[in-house]
Amino acid sequence: MMWWNGSWTWLWIAMVPMMALMWALIALVLVPLARNGRDRPPSPRERLDDRLAAGEISVEEHRTRRAEVDHR
How far apart are CA 55 and CA 53, in angstroms? Predict the structure, then answer.
């Protein structure tokens, strides 16, 4: 049986940081793809449309407020 006396140490010293770098790059690519814009808050127009769909405001009030939002 041969004893390598630590001659593979240089390989471990190189592999550990490279593996960490690889996982960091994978995370930097996959996390934004997984989010896919879900973290952004709804726009005023989207909130207004949601309120109309929920029946919280009338169609006339929706038209009035939408005109105000569109002019900003």
Answer: 5
Tokens 């006339």 map to which residue?
A: 60
Q: Is residue 19 part of a domain?
A: no
Do 52 and 59 meet the contact criterion of CB atoms below 8 Å apart? yes
* Residue indicated by tokens 């939408």: 66
- The H or E element that residue 46 is part of is helix 44-54
* Total domains present in the chain: 1
pTM of the model: 0.47
Please give the radius of gyration of the chain, using alpha carbons only, rounded to the nearest integer: 28
At position 36, the amino acid (one-letter code) is N
pLDDT in tens, 59-68: 999 999 999 9
Do the domain assignments include residue 28? Answer: no
- DSSP-based three-state secondary structure for 40: coil
